[in-house]
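Researcher: Please translate sequence to C-alpha cells.
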Amino acid sequence: MKIAFIGAGSMAEAIMSGLLKKEICTPGSIVVTNKQDQARLKQLKEKYGIQTTENKQETTKKADVIFLAMKPKDAKDGIQAIKEYVQEDQLIVSVLAGISSSVIEDLFEKNLRVIRSMPNTSAAIGLSATAIAKGRYANEEDLTLVQSLFSAIGLCTIVEENQLHAVTGVSGSGPAYVYFVAEAMERAALAQGLDREVAKQLVSQTLIGAAHMLQESNKNADVLRKEVTSPGGTTHRGIGVLKELHVSEAFETCIAGATERSREMGEEMAERLKEKTSK
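Model: Translation complete:
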C-alpha cells in the first residue's frame, strides 16, 4: 500500500511513525510533501527513510491513500496544488479539523472517497484517541482500512460525521483538560509542602493509573470513584469540595463550549473556502 502525506507537521509525523513501528507499511511506501519547508522534509527523510519530494504529481500519482495533513488554513491551496493529479480510485483521509467531507469533495471537484479523522496530540506517543467518519462516497471497506491505520497510533473508533464536533470537544481538546487538572494538582501539592519533582511524579502516575483502571476495568467511572471514596474519609472530603464548587458542571459546560466552537469554526472555514474558490 502506497501512502502520500500532503503536509509534514507533527500529526503527519505521528501517523507515519506509528505505521512504520507497527510495520503496516515500509519507509519506501510513504512519500511526503509540504508547501515549502524543505528542511522539514529532509529531517523526516533522514529520520524515517521515507521518500520526500516537492513534485506534487509525483507525490500523489501512485498513492493508494492520500492524507490531507496540512494546516486547515492552507487546505484550499494544498488541494489546488494536487487536485488535477488525484483520481477517484484513490482514498482521501483528512486530518483537517473543522472541514467537512463535502467541502473537501467540492474543492477537488470530484466524487472522491473521503474519510475524516480527529486524532489528538497523544498520537505523538502512540496513544491517540481517534474518531473517523466517512463522506458520502466512502464505503465500509474504506472505514475498516483507515481504522487499521489509525490503530497504529492508539485507539480508533467510528462515528457519524456530524458527531466529530463532539469528538473534538471531548478527545480532540481532551488532553488540554487533563493537563489543566494536572497543573492544579501539582500547585496544590506544592502548597502542601511537596517537592516540585515529587509532585509531578505523583500526579502524573496517579493520572496514568486512573486511566488504566478506566480502560481495563469493566466498571464505570462513577463506580470506581465510589470505591475510592470511603464515608467520612479524606477522599470524601475532597470530592465534597469539588461538588460544592460545581466542578462536574464546569467540565460539562467546558466540553459543550468546545463542541459548539468546533461547529462555528467548521462553518467559518467552509465560508472562507467557498469565498476563495468563487474569486
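Researcher: Any highlights?
Model: The chain has two domains: 3-160, 174-245.
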